[in-house]
Amino acid sequence: MSQATSAVHAHTDASHSHHDFARANQAHFDEHADKLEEEHPYARNFGVLSVNAMRDTFPALFDKEHTEVLDYACGTGMFSQALRPYVKSIVGADISQASVDVYNKQAADQGFASQMRAVRAELKGEPGELGGAKFDLITCSAAYHHFADIGTVTRALAFFLKPGGALLVTDIKAAPDGAMLVPETYHHVVPHRHGMTEERMRTTFEGAGLVEFALKDMQAVKFQPDAPEIMWFVARGVKPAEGV
Ligand SMILES: C[S@@+](CC[C@H](N)C(=O)[O-])C[C@H]1O[C@@H](n2cnc3c(N)ncnc32)[C@H](O)[C@@H]1O
């Protein structure tokens, strides 16, 4: 990273601070998992928007007969539940045990426990994790802004892709004027308070060895009546096929 780029990142996010964002997220989502839908009534519909954006932009990645998915930072499963009708199976993984418990309870209550299940994990991208499973598609919805080091997470996720498999991320797009987009109440769990630029996502995906980078605006979303509109993006990277 050039000095100029690193200065910009230091200025626009808190990912280089000493605060332990992973532990703060674990504690926050463990505490809020049971009441997440009450506290964020828009979240379930956002999962649907996120799935629709992924399917509209990259339709070839979704095959009900064959696509095996890892949904990373799956939370309580609102995104996974919207995704389920379009794929063969989903393994969810999240740092928060309480979120994973809600995920698995809802999957069982809805009769889909054999098609989707979640585990508590903070993936490193090492042999033996997730029982050695590899995936056709890895999704990560509305979580990149929570990760202190998006490069480390992207490299870990790339490890779990089959050759030719794809990573799809939806997250907050940086505003053209670099405005702060995340309310202060969430700063203890969100290092990337100004969202991500396309360039940042491209260098992150390419740094993890992913090719065919593409990023499209998803939709402008207003989470509260008095909140500013925030643009979201969907980004894709592909693990090179073997022998390429
Ligand atoms: C805003 S929620 C999104 C949940 C889900 N993807 C959805 O769209 O419904 C962010 C999730 O990221 C998880 N998370 C935060 N930091 C994490 C980390 N370092 N590793 C794994 N999960 C993490 C949180 O526990 C939380 O469930």
TrEMBL record:
InterPro entries with a match to the protein in the record: SAM-dependent_MTases_sf
GO BP field: methylation
CDD domains per UniProt: AdoMet_MTases
Superkingdom of the source species: Eukaryota
One term of GO molecular function: methyltransferase activity
Cleavable signal peptide: none
Keywords: Methyltransferase, S-adenosyl-L-methionine, Transferase
Name recorded for this polypeptide: S-adenosyl-L-methionine-dependent methyltransferase
Organism this protein belongs to: Trametes pubescens (White-rot fungus)
